[in-house]
Amino acid sequence: MNRAMACWALLPLAFSLCLPPAIHAAEPRVTVLTTSRSPAPTARANSADFEAQGITEAYFDATLSAPVAGILGKHFFKEGDSVEAGQVIVELDKRMEELEVARRQTVLDNSAEVLRRTEELAARTRSVAKEELDKHRAEHRIAQAELDLANEQLRRRQVIAPFPGVIADLFNLDSGEGCQPQTPIARLVDTRRCWLVINLEARRAQALHVGQRLNLRLESEIGPRTVDAEVRFISPVADPASGLVRVKAVFDNAEAKIPAGITATVRLPAETTGITAPPAVRETPAPAQAP
Asked: According to CATH, what is the number of the domain 94-156?
């Protein structure tokens, strides 16, 4: 009797052990996007200005040559001398050209005298045909043109300074040496003003404008010094290989204390960029559902 009652008491427990375990659903989680109310986008400056390096160049820099072949005759200046615009720096042998000018001058003087006498005779006696008078006038104009041509040929034997400056190089050419057309004979530079040429990333070049003042730091014969420069040119195109944009600024160098061709450092204003706060993202568990 007792054994039977014990079996009946254990029957529910055995039955529960035979059932599969209950499946509990995971609590669902829902991602909720919430946008925080942040201030409107504002401009922010970098903590330090950007520095770039460039090369100084003479404001005017020309390599001069003669347009004709010839023999070097005379140097009127040496390297380091200052010259004014229009002065002859070097000339080629010009004896033949001088003789030609003298000959053409004689022809012109003779034609002018013949024309004068013919015009006086025509005015006094009216015995000179109009065709003959026109012929003498044409001969005089031709003689004048030929003299001008001879003078131009003589002028082309000279290398003349196109602007005031200093002779930087004579290319080791001495009197008596031959030269071909377009052979470099003299280099003339004007460093009373200089260019600073820098290559910048497009985004930095676009932040500049013509007329903007920049601060340069460079070395001179009296030590480090700073000068002000003015932006004069910003290239409208970028170099296709490097992606850089060429910028040119001019600065005063009246005392020629700064040689052209040295490296200078320019301080550019810090970039200004807009900053927008992104929306905040947080995960919020969904409310538990009742079973």
From this structure: 1.10.287
